[in-house]
Design brief:
The protein has about 375 residues and is of the alpha/beta class. It contains eleven helices and twelve strands. Strands 1, 5, 6, 7, 8, 9, 10, 11 and 12 form a nine-stranded mixed sheet that branches. The protein starts with 10 loop residues before the first strand and ends in a 13-residue tail after the last helix.
C-alpha cells in the first residue's frame, strides 16, 4: 500500500472515454510534417498547441489538464495498446474491460480487483459506478457492486423506482453481453447482482445532504459523475474503486468542434474534481485513470478520423509523478500497424498491473493473466 496516506486506503477512479479518443489530436506532435500532411482537415495548428516540449503539446481545449500536468499531477501514458489491436468498438472495449485480447472472458478486471479487496462480498459499496449502464469491467459472478445513474436522482427514488431502474439496466446488460459471453455467464452474474444495490441505498441516499463545497462543477455528464464520486468519497463510505464514463469520442465526422467540446468538458471536470477533493483533504489517496478503447487512424477522412490503434491514457493525482511515460508512437509510415495506424508502444495490461500493484496493493498476475512491464508513475513518499 502507498506510504503516508494518513491512514486512508488508496482509491482508484477509472474514467472511460468511450468511442476511441483521437490521441494524435489530444497530445499533438505539432512539429511533425507527417502529422500535417496526414491531417489536412482534422488537425491542431502549431499556433494553437499548448506546448509540453519541442515535439508535443496539448489540444487547446485541454488547458486545465495542461495546468495539472505543469503542476506535476498528470502522467501521460503514450502508445497504449496490444498486439493485433481490434478496431471494433464492442470487442476493443471488451478487451479493455477484461484484460483478455485473445479470448472472450467472463470477468472484468476491476471485478477481480474488488474480489481481492472484499473476498467475502460483504460490501456492495467497495465498487461503485456512476452513469448509465453497468460497465463490464466491474462485472463478475459473485462480485457485488453498486451502479447508479446519479446521486441526486437516486436519492429521490423509492425502492420500487430503484428496482425498476435496476431491472432496465440489467436488461440492457443481458441483451448486450449474452451474444458474447453466453446466457449462462450473463444470467449467473445478473442473478447475483439484481437486488444487491438495495442494501446500499440508505448509505448513498444520505450522501448529497452531507456534502458542501465551494467548487462549482459544469453542467455536463462527466462533471456530474465526478462530482458524485467526490461526494461519495468525501462521505467516507469505504468505496475503493469508482467507475465513470464520458461518451462521444467516435468522431468519424465533424470531429473538430465535437472533440474540442469533449476535451473541454473532460479537462474542466478533472480539474474541479481534484480541487474539490483537496478542499476536503481527500485528494492524496485518490488516483484517476482515464482511458479509451483505441486511438484513431493517422490519416483523417476529410471530416473526422476512423478507428485505429496506438492510443493514450492519463494517470492523475497528487501522488502521481507527472510527465511523459512510454514513447509516443513512431510517425514513420513503415512502422504503422495495418499500414495506417499508430503502433502501440506499451501494453495496456502493464498499466493495469501498475495501478493494481503499486497503487492499490493488489496482486495483478491473475487479473492481467501474466507479468507485464510496469511504469513508475507514483511519487515515493
Amino acid at each position: 500500500m502507498p506510504n503516508n496516506l494518513k491512514g486512508k486506503a488508496p482509491v482508484l477512479v477509472v474514467l472511460q472515454m468511450t468511442g476511441g479518443n483521437d490521441f494524435m489530436n489530444t497530445l499533438v506532435p505539432y512539429t511533425s510534417g507527417l502529422y500535417y500532411d496526414s491531417r489536412q482537415t482534422v488537425r491542431i495548428t502549431e499556433d494553437r498547441v499548448l506546448e509540453l516540449n519541442d515535439q508535443l503539446g496539448f489540444h487547446p481545449a485541454a488547458a486545465p489538464l495542461k495546468d495539472m500536468f505543469d503542476a506535476g499531477d498528470v502522467a501521460i501514458v503514450q502508445g497504449i495498446g496490444y498486439e493485433n489491436s481490434n478496431r471494433s468498438h464492442f470487442r476493443a472495449m471488451d478487451i479493455m474491460h477484461t484484460a483478455e485480447p485473445n479470448a472472450i472472458a467472463t470477468e472484468g478486471w476491476l471485478a477481480k480487483a474488488i474480489r481481492q479487496l472484499d473476498p467475502e462480498g460483504k460490501d456492495v459499496l467497495t465498487g461503485v459506478s456512476f452513469g448509465r449502464g453497468l460497465p463490464r469491467a466491474m462485472a463478475a459472478p459473485g462480485v457485488r457492486v453498486t451502479s447508479v445513474g446519479d446521486l441526486d436522482t437516486y436519492g429521490l427514488m423509492t425502492s420500487v423506482d430503484i428496482k425498476e431502474d435496476r431491472a432496465e439496466a440489467m436488461d440492457i446488460f443481458k441483451r448486450f453481453y449474452t451474444p458474447a459471453i453466453g446466457s449462462g455467464a450473463t444470467m449467473s452474474y445478473l442473478q447475483q447482482t439484481g437486488d444487491d444495490v438495495l442494501t446500499g441505498i440508505d448509505q448513498l441516499q444520505t450522501v448529497p445532504g452531507r456534502y458542501k463545497s465551494t467548487v462549482e462543477y459544469a453542467d455536463n455528464p462527466i462533471a456530474k459523475s465526478l462530482r458524485d464520486v467526490a461526494r461519495t468519497h468525501i462521505a467516507g463510505l469505504g468505496t475503493r474503486i469508482f467507475y465513470v464514463q464520458h461518451g462521444g469520442y467516435d468522431h468519424h465526422a465533424v470531429e473538430m468542434p465535437a472533440h474540442e467540446k469533449l476535451l473541454g468538458e473532460l479537462s474542466g471536470a478533472l480539474r474541479d474534481f481534484m480541487d474539490d477533493l483537496r478542499e476536503h483533504d481527500s485528494a492524496e489517496e485518490v488516483v484517476v485513470y482515464a482511458f479509451t478503447e483505441f486511438g484513431r487512424r493517422v490519416q483523417d477522412n476529410g471530416s473526422g478520423t476512423d478507428h485505429g490503434s496506438g492510443g493514450g491514457a492519463f494517470i492523475i493525482g497528487d501522488r502521481v509523478e507527472g510527465g511523459l511515460y512510454s514513447e509516443y508512437p513512431s510517425l514513420d509510415p513503415k512502422t504503422f500497424a495495418n499500414g495506417e495506424d499508430l503502433e502501440h508502444t506499451f501494453d495496456f495490461r502493464g498499466v493495469y498491473a501498475t495501478l493494481l500493484e503499486q497503487w492499490m496493493s493488489i496482486d495483478s498476475i491473475d487479473i492481467v493473466r501474466g507479468k507485464y512491464e510496469q511504469l513508475q508513475p507514483f511519487r515515493v513518499a
